[in-house]
Specification:
2 domains; about 20% strand; globular; GIY-YIG endonuclease; single chain; about 30% helix; 5-stranded antiparallel sheet; 5 helices
Length: about 150
């Protein structure tokens, strides 16, 4: 679904001072205000995988986390980036990718695997966002990529 929104429709009559100082275009500002992290979505529980609920085929920065079956107190463990969200989540569902051992262990222990994503405009933006997240937070499943170790 595509739609167009202007600053006026969002009731933004002047750009915020931080947007002016950084020379952010109106289109980028509108995209920034409309986008954000998705809610946490259940990806796996026990032996069941739920990758059919992912419908976005574009570039994404995403987090994987574990939590209880009702979604309370989800703990993020991994940040990654991909050029195609649906294909990447299907990889986790089919064989767990490079995280298969640790994901399988958490699922056997009774945890559920959750996912949330942040839609970006390009693969390059996804990589940049991932690097910013790694510089700011410690993700225990990103052993090789944690930047502040």
């Amino acid at each position: 679904m595509t739609f167009s929104v202007s600053c006026v429709q969002l009731r933004i009559y002047r750009k915020p001072c931080w947007a002016v100082r950084r020379r952010i275009t109106t289109a980028t500002l509108v995209r920034f205000l409309l986008m954000g992290w998705t809610r946490w979505r259940l990806l796996a529980s026990g032996n069941e995988w739920y990758s059919d609920s992912f419908d976005y085929d574009g570039p994404t920065c995403y987090e994987l986390g574990t939590g209880g079956p009702r979604g309370g107190r989800i703990q993020p463990h991994y940040v990654g980036e991909t050029s195609n969200e649906r294909a990447r989540m299907a990889q986790y569902a089919s064989h767990g990718s490079h995280l298969s051992k640790i994901i399988d262990w958490h699922l056997r222990e009774g945890w559920c695997l959750y996912y949330r994503g942040y839609k970006v405009g390009s693969k390059k933006e996804a990589v940049e966002m991932q690097n910013r997240m790694l510089a700011r937070y410690r993700y225990d499943w990103n052993e090789k990529l944690n930047l502040y170790d």
